[in-house]
């Protein structure tokens, strides 16, 4: 984790692509949303077979790669098990149905395939305090509103598509759960650039963060004795570790690498044993 240097998550994504070019070369990679195509171009340059998609393909600029229209709020025009890797960069925070999007991204991945996902970090201390005081993701921004947070496609394109701003910002805990329900498990969290405001806030609040998270962990362990001890310890410990990780609490963005470990039906069947039917 760095305290100085670039703030742009795209720079860290570019560094990831370059450092992993040996394993990316020759692989089928879906870039969605592709935006202007910067990452698609880098993936092409390291030898990947790149398939770019975006809600607004007209903004795509990368030469040698075709960008097709796709909406993460609908079924993707991609067959099951198509990709070795999916790059979803700065997209999920715009989506009202994030579970649907993650299920679709999982569907198009091969078993063992990777989803590389980045999003502004709603788990860092600055975001938490901003939401506490103004329901805003960032203290410099107004809360979600119809002027700043609802965008429309260019009328010249013949579309009336609505595109939301950062209305659906997501933190690591919700992201972990929704991805898990889609058959995706966190393989690695890539740590990069700290947000200085979050780092300062953490200096004063970390003892409370530890206490609140540990108290919740102990209560959950005592309460759910209907679940096998090792199972609940594994699950609640993972959630607890994410909740107290200082790096997650201060970093500006989440940069998470998921692995497809199961299909949706198998995941739901496994989780169903934890919960009684609610009538």
Distance between the termini: 47 Å
- Backbone shape: globular
Share of residues in strands = 15-25%
Biggest β-sheet, characterized? 7 strands, mixed
**Mind telling me the C-alpha Rg?**
20 Å
Fraction of residues in helices?
25-40%
Structural class: alpha/beta
Strand order of the largest sheet: 3-2-1-4-5-9-8
**What's the tally of helices?**
10
Overall mean pLDDT stands at: 92
**Based on DSSP secondary structure assignment, what is the total number of beta strands?**
9
Uncertain parts: none
Order of helical and strand elements: HHEHEEEHEHEEHEHHHEH
Describe this structure in words.
Helix content is 40%, strand content 19%. It is an alpha/beta fold. The strands form two sheets. A seven-stranded mixed sheet has the order 3-2-1-4-5-9-8, with helices on both faces. A two-stranded antiparallel sheet has the order 6-7. Strand 1, helix 3 and strand 2 form a beta-alpha-beta unit. Helix 7 (196-223) packs antiparallel against helix 8. The model has no long low-confidence stretch (mean pLDDT 92).
Notable characteristics:
279 residues, alpha/beta, 7-stranded mixed beta sheet, 10 helices, 9 strands
Quick structural gist:
The protein is an alpha/beta fold.
């Amino acid at each position: 984790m760095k305290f100085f240097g670039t703030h742009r998550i795209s720079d860290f994504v570019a560094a990831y692509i370059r450092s992993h070019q040996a394993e990316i070369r020759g692989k089928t990679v879906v870039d969605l949303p592709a935006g202007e195509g910067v990452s698609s171009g880098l993936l092409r340059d390291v030898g990947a077979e790149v398939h770019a998609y975006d809600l607004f393909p007209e903004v795509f600029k990368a030469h040698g790669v075709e960008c097709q229209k796709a909406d993460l709020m609908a079924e993707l025009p991609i067959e099951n098990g198509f990709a070795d890797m999916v790059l979803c960069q700065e997209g999920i925070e715009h989506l009202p149905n994030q579970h649907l999007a993650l299920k679709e991204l999982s569907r198009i991945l091969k078993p063992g395939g990777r989803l590389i996902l980045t999003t502004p970090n709603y788990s860092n201390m600055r975001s938490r305090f901003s939401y506490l005081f103004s329901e805003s993701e960032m203290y410099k921004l107004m809360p979600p509103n119809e002027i700043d947070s609802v965008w429309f496609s260019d009328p010249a394109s013949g579309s009336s598509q609505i595109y939301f701003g950062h209305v659906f910002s997501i933190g690591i805990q919700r992201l972990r759960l929704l991805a898990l329900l889609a058959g995706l498990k966190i393989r690695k969290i890539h740590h990069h650039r700290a947000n200085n405001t979050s780092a300062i806030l953490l200096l004063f609040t970390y003892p409370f963060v530890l206490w609140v998270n540990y108290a919740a962990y102990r209560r959950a362990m005592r309460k759910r004795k209907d679940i096998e001890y090792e199972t609940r310890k594994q699950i609640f410990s993972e959630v607890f570790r994410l909740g107290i990780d200082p790096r997650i609490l201060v970093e500006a963005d989440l940069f998470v690498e998921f692995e497809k470990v199961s299909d949706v039906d198998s995941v739901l069947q496994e989780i169903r044993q934890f919960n009684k039917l609610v009538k």
